[in-house]
Amino acid sequence: MPFGGGNKCGCCQKTVYFAEEVQCEGKSWHKSCFRCMVCKKNLDSTTVAVHVDEIYCKSCYGKKYGPKGYGFGGGAGTLSMDTGEGLGIKPEVQAPHRPTNNPNASKFAQKAAGSDVCPRCEKTVYAAEKVIGGGNSWHKGCFRCANCGKGLESTTVTDKDGEIFCKACYAKNFGPKGFGFGQGAGALAHSQ
User: Fold this and answer.
1) What burial class does residue 60 get, using C-beta atoms within 10 Å of its C-beta: 0-12 exposed, 13-18 middle, 19+ buried?
2) 3-state SS string over 74-142?
């Protein structure tokens, strides 16, 4: 401990006495000086982030030194227009957009002669609305049981002769018949 009673504060460089001392990364600070270098919020051991000799709250530290780019935003569903100039970050200058010289840049730009056709409505099925089942491509709205109209999923679809059914309708129409193959537990079907 230097002469004069205590260590020097990491912020104001004045003497820090024991009663007002906060220690972080081997340095002493006054309680009133232990604040974020950017937003000036009071810090404690759970909210402090250190970079060399500077202290920050975790939010400002992340903005200044954290990862940049798509997916590293201010939180779920937020879009920030903050360039970080207040934190000493120089904004990146983006090059102007140049269109491609390729005349066929996308395979979706043209409608191919062999494009998928929905077997239910007989209209073209595009990639955004495509569901595959029973060996065919279907519109999401057309991917329903042919018998009861119930919406189907990959785990509930069964097919017969190019048509799709829910498991219940398939079992009822094409499953085994007779004693022990009823509609449910304890049910007895009388078929003539």
Assistant:
1) buried
2) CCCCCCCCCCCHHHCCCCCCCCCCCCCCCCCCCCCCCCCCCCCECCCCCCECCHHHEEEECCEEEECCC
Under DSSP, is residue 170 helix (H, G, I), strand (E, B) or coil? helix
The first and second tokens of residue 7, run together, are 């260590």
CB 55 within 8 A of CB 37: yes
The candidate with the shortest Cα–Cα distance to 116, out of 130, 105, 128, is: 130
Three-state DSSP class for residue 23: strand
- Tell me how far apart the 2 most distant CA atoms of the chain are, in Å: 108
Percent of the chain with pLDDT over 70: 65
- The confidence score (pLDDT) of residue 93 equals 63
CB atoms within 10 A of CB 159: 14
> pTM for the complete prediction?
0.37
Task: Please state, in angstroms and rounded to a whole number, the distance separating the CA atoms of residues 4 and 61.
Answer: 34
Section 181-189 average pLDDT: 53
What SS3 state is found at 60?
Answer: helix
Using one digit for the tens of pLDDT, what is the confidence trace for 33-64?
A: 999 988 989 988 888 888 888 889 988 888 88
- Calculate the dihedral angle through the C-alpha atoms of 143, 147, 148, 150, rounding to the nearest 10 degrees: -20
Residue 180 has pLDDT above 70, yes or no: no
Name the 3-class secondary structure at 53.
Answer: coil
